[in-house]
Amino acid sequence: MASLSAGSRYRDVAAWAFTVPGLLFQFFFGWFPILIAFVVGFQRYYFVNPPEFIGWQNFLDVFSDELTWTSFRNTFYFAALSIGLTFLIPIFISILLMEMSSRTIRWMMVLWFIPVASTAGIVIWKYMYQFDMGLMNHIMRLLHLPEQRWLDDPTLAMFSLVLPGLILYGPGLMYIAALQSVPEELYEAAELEGAGFFKKIQTVTLPRLRPVIAMMLIFSVIGAMQAFELPFIMTGGGPGYATTTVVMQVYNMAFNAYNLGKATALAILLFFIIMAMIMVQRRVVRENLDD
Amino acid sequence: MPLIPQVGRRRLRVRLALLAIAAFLWLGVLLHLFPVAWMASASLKPTREIFEQPFRLWPEEPTVASYRLLFTTVLTSGLNIDTTVFRFPLWVYLQNSVVIAALTVLLQIPVTAMAAYAVSKLHRPSRARWLFYFFIGTLMVPGQIAVVPRFLLLSHFPWPTSAVPDIPFTGLPFPSVSFIGTFWGVVLPAAFNAFNFLLFKGFFDTLPSDLIEAARIDGATELQTLRAVMLPLARPVVAVTTYFAFTAAWNDFLGPWIILMSEQSRWPISVVLYKLQYVLQGWQPSQGSLDPAMQQLVAAGVGYNALMALAVVESIPMFIAFLIFREQLMKGIQIHGLKG
Amino acid sequence: MRPSTARRVPPPVLSATLLLASLLPGCGRTEADLPTKPLTPAEYYIKSDMEKFRYKNITVRVPGSWGGVLLPEDAGPWGAPIWKAVHWGDVTTIMGLYNQALFELQHPRVKLEYIQFDMWSDNFKSALAVALKAKRAPAYYIARDLPQTIEQGLYADLTPLMKKWDQYELQPEGSRREGTYNGRIYTLAGNELGATIIKFRKDWFREAGILNERGEPGPPLNWTWDDFRRIAKRLTDPARKRYGYAAAIGGFSSVGYLYYVSSGLDTYVPDPTGKRTWVFNDKDPEMLRSLEIAREMVARDRSVLTSVSYGWTQWHSEFDASRAAMIAGFSPHPAREFLESPYKLGKDKPYGETVGMVPLPGHPSGYTPLRPVTNPIGFDPTLKPEELEAAFEWCKSWFYGDVFVNRVRAAADEARAKNRGSSLYVEMLCLPYKPKVNVLDKPLEEVFPPDYMDFYRRVRESHAPPLPREFGLREPPTNEMERALKAMYSEACTSNVDLRDLLRRTAALINNNLLNYRNPQDSERLRRWLDARTRFFKRWFPRYHDTVWQPRLAAYYRVP
Fold first, then answer.
1. How much is the ipTM here?
2. Is the pLDDT of residue C19 over 60?
3. CA nearest A115: which of B240, B239, B243?
4. E-strand stretches of chain A
5. Which of B92, B171, B178 shows the shortest C-beta gap to C134?
């Protein structure tokens, strides 16, 4: 018995030794900043002078600033466009992709996932959108459509940000992985029962994909609501404030207006809104799962 | 395969459908490759051909002048706008990107893997559950709420404000370190990644405990067990997470932008690319005149082609990483047994 | 079997802890660290390297290209970066090093560091925030977004240093007022004096026969808003794609702003009810009129080229592309362009005869919005007193002392060798201070066109009215106000909404969101500010004071 307890004590020490670095990093750079955020959100802090507590004033400022609502409008618009238009496409493409021969699949996957650095990709598209010399207007001219101002046009700017995701359609790694785990027998069984192409998708494929889709939807929502790099590099906020997202507004408030308290209050507001969206989404998906 | 039955494949309608699907997919592949080809071709164009109409995919006279220009510097005195993008030779910026990516990967993978292994195998179940939520809880939290606080934390680590308290019984303030302007300021926040933790834990969960028991009975320490037994089996997961960590670190813009803004000698290529395109965006060839400093830059050949050359340089290591990890990546996704 | 790792503290950890503990006492700096005996330059010179190194305990970080120079970062084939600068013939950089050595010789305690810090980019503010936190900020930097940045504590208090300075009075009045908050001084006026101007095409004026009282092509010498509107309309020529005026829709260049600034109208006035410090000035009919005029000029006259996305670069490009007869600008720039790119607008169009500058239009009663301003400079608030003093000494030397003299000499040498116009003349034209020695080889009248000299004479003679911040009054946040006004003018110009309604909505927005503060001492402060302002108008613009200011004061500037 003595050796067992010593062994398990040793195992405990080893377990903690393995966990502690991760624990420390996750605490200091994962949870601690969130705690700090909830403190700074109630302070007046302008970088240089020591902060002081001012209660709810920051939140009142955030609510009364119409730029807050503009940026939320823009962010929702962007999230809706990007999720609505580009979320379903990879699912669809992945399903279609599985129809090809495995050699074709391998080739297509390799070519589809050739990486371009994300900053480089954004810059390439920015130049394609240039008014007189860009490729997009050249194509418009070829198709005898009127030239657009793309990123300079307040009404078109947000759509122009989402457009590359729409044009560059491709499969999703997660979906392919999930699809590969579907056994052939299920399809054959459905076949025997007389199911056609779409019926098979409905009864066999989609139910298997549902957990993956639900998880990816959550990540997509979080990602879309947090868009910073894409609008920052492409338009820097857009003509007027047409492409200013909430995160850009947080950045501007913190690093240009130096109002750290207000910026954090806005970030907290965004946090709660995203949490609410996720919870609503999980409830809806769970309901779907149940019926 | 599964959706279209084997039996009917001979029929014309089905074959046409298959052909249509294949064509559609190949079109997608081509569209995806188009920006890559565009980037490469624009980087090889001489200056006067950049905005030529009609668009040519392949330059008439391919030249590597842009690349050559990227590897030299432009003198700063005499220019009074921010054309100091090239204050350092390109290889310095490349080195910075490599250092950041390497440090991140070397730090993140061991820390995350060990923590996942411990939570999966070594801890008591009750503790393991609590630790698990601690580790992945931040996945559900949007990361942008932490941008400003993380910056404050890094400015006087580990205190969130510059008002550092005194060590009791002495008159000295607690030590506080500023990581702003150093590589550690970019690498340390990425030292633990919740998503990769999830992948590792998912994998370790699928490994049977008998192997570990066998190793323990043989008298190996836990570290030896991990190294000798688990890691060889975990190769695909390690490859996948390494690739993800590498690409995330290589592509990282916001982190270096905020932390390293004041130290140009430490900029990675993503920031350099952004700065260069920002400087050049004021240049519209259709408009009459140019800032004289900008004219100098343009006369030296720094234009859209140089920008694309820089983009190519930035993308090449990612492509190399992709080639290295391709096999494991394709294999790795097959073992993603992610439950909802 | 008992594993050995369980109990003992491993040796590396122990020694690391001891090392760390031994460093702790060294963490705090005490007064005993500073060498007490000051050395003269001669005494300093003979000390050893380490003694010199330890003696220099004051560091002043000078931004490169704003007083400092930066060596190239790589050496090329020359062996070391400094040789690269030498063999390139880069006298400016080498002279910068000479100045550094000279200053350190004169002030042995000081160590100058030339660092790279970009003052002029759009992300200057974020770069400054990061640099302050990284403790790598320059000792001084441009002071933007006054007065909010003063309230945020971004600049050191310069009042004691200013009081001791002999050239304090030579700072342009506008700059002095801008940087004063509640009686304390936070900014130093930079070395480029100027004013907001209207830049115009002399050749188009000549063509249209619009001459001023002296027979030169240009608007009348004391032109008014009506003159401006008339001229803009006259010079608009759709057939030749010419607009009378190009500007942004909001901000200091917009026509709405020009209108109300020409009569000294304020966008915010004291709140008569006392609930807030300020309210938006929608009661004054001139504010409504400014909206009407903006709409008329943009939509009806079509004499203004403007757009939502227009900024400084855009409207300057339109002017350079010969699409606008007039634009708003800042006066050192045409003088600089005159020297550096004399044929910018065309090979047959020498700059001096093609581009002119005049102050913004004023009021028929003689009031003019011409104000002398310059780049305000703020100092790092975390500097210790001796560091602040050293940085201030450096700035003085850079503006008009040894550093200045050497610098312009090097620039002149370089310009002569490259056969270019020397920037020395522009610097002397715009320098508010008196240099140590005369560096001009010929008088400025021989270099610049007479109307440029005349303009600068007027700038130096102009005055700036007292600002609320000098009396401790908190002014509304500049960027947000500008944004709200820009949105208002944008809507007025691009749609058909009822202007009264628009004004009311904007007033509600501004009053509720931007002006909702008050301090109990504000009544007293407002009264003092208004008295100072009245005295100012009475002294410099008596007709305006009698006919415009007094009625306005009585009607709209009531203090509770």
1. 0.83
2. no
3. B243
4. 43-44, 52-53
5. B178
Taking an 8 Å cut-off on Cβ atoms, the answer to whether B82 and C118 are in contact is: yes
Q: Report yes or no on A78 lying in a domain.
A: yes
Same domain? C226 vs C126: no
Q: What is the pLDDT of residues A100-145, one digit of tens each?
A: 887 888 888 888 888 888 888 888 888 888 776 778 888 888 888 8
Which chain B residues are Cβ-neighbours of C320 within 8 angstroms?
287-289
Q: Are C104 and C112 in contact (CB under 8 A)?
A: yes
DSSP string, B142-207: -GGGGHHHHHHHHHTBT-SSS-PPBPTTSSPBPP-B--TTSTHHHHGGGSS-HHHHHHHHHHHHHS
Residues of B in contact with C69 (CB under 8 A): 77
C34 has a pLDDT exceeding 70: no
Mean pLDDT of all residues in chain B? 78
Query: How is residue A144 written in tokens?
Result: 């005898």
Q: Are the beta carbons of B111 and A22 separated by less than 8 Å?
A: yes
Nearest-neighbour CA in chain C from B88: distance (Å): 6
Q: Is the pLDDT of residue C24 over 60?
A: no
Minimal Cα distance from B277: which residue of A?
Answer: A123
Both A165 and A77 in a single domain? yes
Nearest to A49 among C122, C130, C153 (CB): C153
To the nearest 5 percent, what fractions of chain C are helix, strand and coil? Answer: 50, 10, 40
Q: Tell if the CB–CB gap between B77 and C74 is shorter than 8 Å.
A: no
The whole-angstrom distance between C420's CA and the closest CA on chain B is 13
Q: What is the pLDDT of residue B53?
A: 60
Q: pLDDT tens across C122-180, in order? A: 778 888 988 888 888 999 999 988 889 999 999 999 999 999 999 999 999 999 999 99
Asked if residue A145 and residue A70 are part of one domain, the reply reads yes
Residues C70 and C209 in one domain: no
Do residues C162 and C73 share a domain? yes
Considering chain B, what percentage of its residues have pLDDT values greater than 70?
78
Same domain, C168 and C148: yes
What's the CATH code of the domain at A105? 1.10.3720.10
In the three-class reduction of DSSP (H, G, I as helix; E, B as strand; rest coil), residue C51 is classed as helix
Give tens-digit pLDDT for C302-334.
888 887 767 787 888 888 888 899 999 998 889
| Same domain as A155, residue A284 | yes
CA atoms within 13 A on the CB side of C273: 6
C54, C125: one domain: yes
CATH number assigned to the domain covering B72-335: 1.10.3720.10
Question: Which chains have 3+ CB pairs within 8 A of B?
Answer: A, C
Domain count across chain C? 2
Q: Let me know if residue A118 belongs to a domain.
A: yes
Interface test with A, best of C150, C308, C317, C379 (most A CBs within 10 A): C308
- Residue C467 placed within a domain: no
Q: Is the pLDDT of residue C98 over 90?
A: yes
Q: How far apart are CA C72 and CA C83, in angstroms?
A: 10
Whether A255 sits inside 8 A of C126 (CB atoms) is: yes
β-bridge pairing C110-115 and C58-63: parallel
Q: Do A274 and B339 touch (CB under 8 A)?
A: no
- State which residue of chain B sits closest to C29, comparing Cα positions: B172
Residues A29 and A167 in one domain: no
**Domain end point (choices C441, C461, C484):** C441
Helix (H, G, I), strand (E, B) or coil at B110: helix
**Same domain, yes or no: A201 and A111:** yes
- Identify the domain containing residue A139 by its residue range: 56-290
Which of B223, B254, B286 has its CB closest to that of A229? Answer: B254
Domain range for C147 is 41-189+377-441
Spans of all domains in chain B: 72-335
Do C47 and C77 lie in one domain? The reply is yes
Do A31 and A117 lie in one domain? The reply is no
Q: Chain C interface, mutation test: which of A47, A64, A132, A260, most C Cβ atoms within 10 Å?
A: A47
**How many Cα atoms within 13 Å fall on the side-chain side of residue B127?**
12
Please write the tens of the pLDDT for every residue from B244-273: 899 999 998 988 999 998 888 899 999 988
Q: Which residue has the higher pLDDT, B243 or C118?
A: B243
